[in-house]
Amino acid sequence: MTMKTLLSTLLALLGLAATAGAKLNVVATTPDFGAIAKEIGGDKIDLTTLAKPTEDPHFVDAKPSFIVKLSRADALIEGGAELEVGWLPPLVEGARNSKLEAGKPGRILCNQGLALLEVPTSLDRSKGDIHAAGNPHYTTDPANAKICAATIAGALAKLDPKSADYFQANLVKFTARLDAKLAEWQKLLEPAKGKRIVTYHNSWPYFAARFGLKMDLFLEPKPGIPPTPSHLAEVITRVKAENIRAIVVEPHLNRKTAEAVAGHTGAVLLDFAPYPGGAKGTEGGYIEWMDTLVHSLAKGFATAK
Ligand SMILES: [Zn+2]
C-alpha cells in the first residue's frame, strides 16, 4: 500500500466513523414543530428552532445567524401554510443549501395530509390579511400534531435510514401519550363546550374545533391588522350581549388592549402561550404546553361569573 492510498483509506474510515456517529442537523421554523421534532428525533438530531416561543410567528426577527444554521442543516421543518412567508424565504435563499431545496427529503412541510381551515375561495392580500392561504395555526389541534409527528418521523427516516426504527418507536410513544392526554383534555373542557371565547388574533380555530368551543370573535379586525376603536366597541357590545366569559391573549400581542376589553365587560383574561416554552410550565414540550392551555381555560371557566 502506498502512502497515498493508506492516507485516503484512513480518511475514508474517519469519514465513515464521523457519519456513523453524526446527528442530523435539523432546523424548525417555530417552537411547535421544534417540540414535535424533539419527541421524534430525540438524541439522533441536533435541533435549532428559529422563532422564539414568545415571538409573533408571522413577523420573526430574521437574524444573520439563521442563514448560517440553515446552510449547515440536513433538514428544515416548516408549516407549509404561509405562516413563515414573511421571513423564511430570503433566509433559505441566502443559505444556498441544496439539501433544503423544495421537493428534497430535507425540506419537511408539516401541513402534508392535514386539512387547513378558513382557506379563502379567492386569494386577496389587499386587505392586509396574513392568513391568505388559510389558517396556518394548525398545531393547536393535538390531532394535527400527531399527523405532523408522523410526517417528521417519515422524513427523518429517509434522511437517516439506520435510525428509522428509533424514530418510529418515538412516534408510537408520542402518539400514545397524546391520545391518553386528549381524552383527559376533552373531559376537562366539557363545561366550556359550545361557549364563545374572544381571542386577540385568530390563532385558535383548530383548538376550538377539537374541543367544541367557539373562538371566532377577535380583537383584530383582520389577522395582522391592529384593533381599531370602532372594532373594539363592536366586540365589547357582543361580549356583553352574549355574556362571553373569557378573552385569550398571547404574549407578543398588546395585553393592555385585551385588559381594557376585559375591564369593560367583566370577562376573564387568559394568557395563552402560542407555543411550547412560551409560558411557565410549557417548557417540557408539546403535551406540557397543551396541558397548560387546557387547564388555564378550564380554570378560567370555573372562576368566570
Ligand atoms: Zn396568524
Give a short summary of the structure.
This protein has 10 helices and 8 strands. It has 2 domains: 21-182, 3-Layer(aba) Sandwich (Rossmann fold), CATH 3.40.50.1980; 184-303, Nitrogenase molybdenum iron protein domain (Rossmann fold, 3-Layer(aba) Sandwich), CATH 3.40.50.1980. The chain is of the alpha/beta class and 305 residues long.
Salient structural properties:
alpha/beta, 4-stranded parallel beta sheet, 305 residues, Rossmann fold, 2 domains, binds zinc ion
How far from one another are the termini? Answer: 86 Å
What is the rounded Rg? Answer: 22 Å
CA-based shape: globular
- What's the helix count? 10
In what order do the strands lie side by side in the largest sheet? 2-1-3-4
The ordered H/E elements are: HEHEHEHEHHEHEHEHEH
Unreliable segments (pLDDT under 50, ≥5 consecutive)?
Answer: none
Q: Hey, roughly how much beta strand do the residues contain?
A: 5-15%
- Mind telling me the CATH superfamily name of the largest domain? Nitrogenase molybdenum iron protein domain
Considering DSSP H and I runs of 4 or more, what fraction of the residues is helical? 40-55%
- CATH top level class name of the largest domain: Alpha Beta
Number of β-strand runs: 8
- Which small-molecule ligands are present, each listed once? zinc ion
What name does CATH use for the topology of the largest domain? Rossmann fold
Number of domains: 2
**CATH arch. level architecture of the largest domain:** 3-Layer(aba) Sandwich
Which structural class is indicated by helix and strand composition? alpha/beta
Largest sheet: 4 strands, parallel
- Can you give the mean pLDDT? 93
